[in-house]
Model the fold of this input.
Amino acid sequence: MKVVICGAGQVGYGIAERLAQEDNDVSVIDTSAALIANITESLDVRGYVGHGAHPDVLAKAGTDQADMLIAVTLSDEVNIVACEVAHAIFNVPTKVARIRAQSYLAPEYANLFSRENVPIDVTISPEVEVGRLVLRRISFPGAIDVVRFADDRIAMVAFECLEDCPVVGTPLQQLSELFPDLLATVTGIFRNGKVIVPHSDDQLQAGDIAYVVCDRDHARRTLTLFGHEEQEARRIIIFGGGNVGYFVAKTIEEHQPRTRVKLIESDRDRAVMMADKLSSTVVLNGSAMDQRILAQADVQDADLVVALTNNDQINILGSMMAKHLGAKSTLVLINEPSYQEFAATAGVDAYVNPRAVTISRVLQHVRKGRIRSVYAVQKGMAEVIEAEALETSPLVGKALRDLELPDGIRIGALYRDKTFIRPDGATRIKAKDRVVLFATADAVRHVEQLFRVSIQYF
Done:
């Protein structure tokens, strides 16, 4: 696949890195010569210095031959125009744009980004995607990651297996015998820096990160059975009143009215605006690293501090200070990959990686076959994938025990007729089933083949 990426910042770099690893033909455009030099020296991609929305620059990057254009510059307007030019002049089949301003995405303007109006096939709003991820993490304390699939009916929950985890050392096949009514399947394990796709006789060990696919309504019980009985936060402090911070605070107000939220914003004008827009949230103007402001926010009583500013250092250091002053737990937004490993050793309880969220949304549209959703885990070492089975799929009609699935793939759930099905050896996949599975990076190509659209389908 030939892909042109407009924007060589953190998001553009991350997308280019992943696509280049999968042997795609990638060209990257950016106005910064330094960013282009960095990306071409580090990755097997072509770089072009210039304006991503200008036709001549897009032409030099080979957009006339592109299967996809991904516009992820810092300017919504540049991203929009780049997609329009790619459509009008180069007839690019798939156009993806990062859109940050929520005004463009308001429900009353839902028809704005359509082939007849502004021809963008996929819009990605990192702030909304990250905000939703943060809210899911708040709703499921103890989880490292929570992602929804199949019309929100299936969840993937990731968590660390602690020393006192009651099922450590138990073969996975026995879990279904011990908990026969639990609709959950362990699909992946991260251990000692490696991703493992387990077999039924494998066991979880203390320190493992387990990836479990379960019925949405069984997610909380799954966490409890695996030793995570943390209580949902009722007193939350948010650092940062930007788009993400506002989205999280507003959503909590609307859906969790019993939760008390305080928000700290350093910019006075922004703080005043947040105070006007939010009804029950207490807004404080000051620095998240100012102990007086933290004391004013009653940080010692906070169940959770959520650091969502645009500055990684403030997020990390501010959350460390809050923890030192008595906050029970911290959840931190971290953009810079090099800080993510440091954060765990610094005492940060959990972090959110916005780049990973955006890359996952892009991969959904890069994957071949009937792929409905993709979520990359452990820096792309594996993916949780939702795919639709067609009549021609080699998976259809056979009992799972008789399928010779490639190594690195484990099926976690089926979604059929709005019903969750926990698979076992006798389960048979039917056409139109939606299959949620865990696959290592090496096995993703096999997944695409298993769910490919065969010529026999037409």
User: Anything to note?
Assistant: The mean pLDDT is 92. Residues 335 and 353 are 6 Å apart (CA to CA). The two ends are 23 Å apart (CA to CA).
